[in-house]
Amino acid sequence: MNCNECRYLMFDLIDEKLSGPVKREMEEHLEQCGACADRLVKMKNRHEEEKPTGLFWYLLAPSGGFKRFFFIGAIFTFILVLALISVQLKKPLFQIF
Ligand SMILES: [Zn+2]
After folding, report:
1. pTM over 0.70
2. 33-18-44 Cα angle (round to 5)
3. Residues 6 or more apart in contact with residue 31 via CB below 8 angstroms
4. From ligand 1's centre to the CA of 1, what distance in Å?
5. What pLDDT band is residue 76 in, cutting at 50, 70 and 90?
6. How far does residue 42's CA lie from ligand 1's centre (Å)?
């Protein structure tokens, strides 16, 4: 594993999303590479400090995963569609249902 791969996977390591072989490779790299180990410590500290509570913040919190971007995109699309329906029906949003 090289430094780029290691840095790319750090979010997943912090979130404990890594499985067996990848995690072991990463730990080996961190033992050999002071720069990445330092970076991981800093990221972990920031992660702890900035960890907000609640589902809303869990979904909006920055992370290595792209799922959240899709999730947020889906929410915005849903709201946009509701707004368009509202305009089409010439009714306020809350009267549709
Ligand atoms: Zn490294």
Report:
1. no
2. 55
3. 37
4. 8
5. very high
6. 14
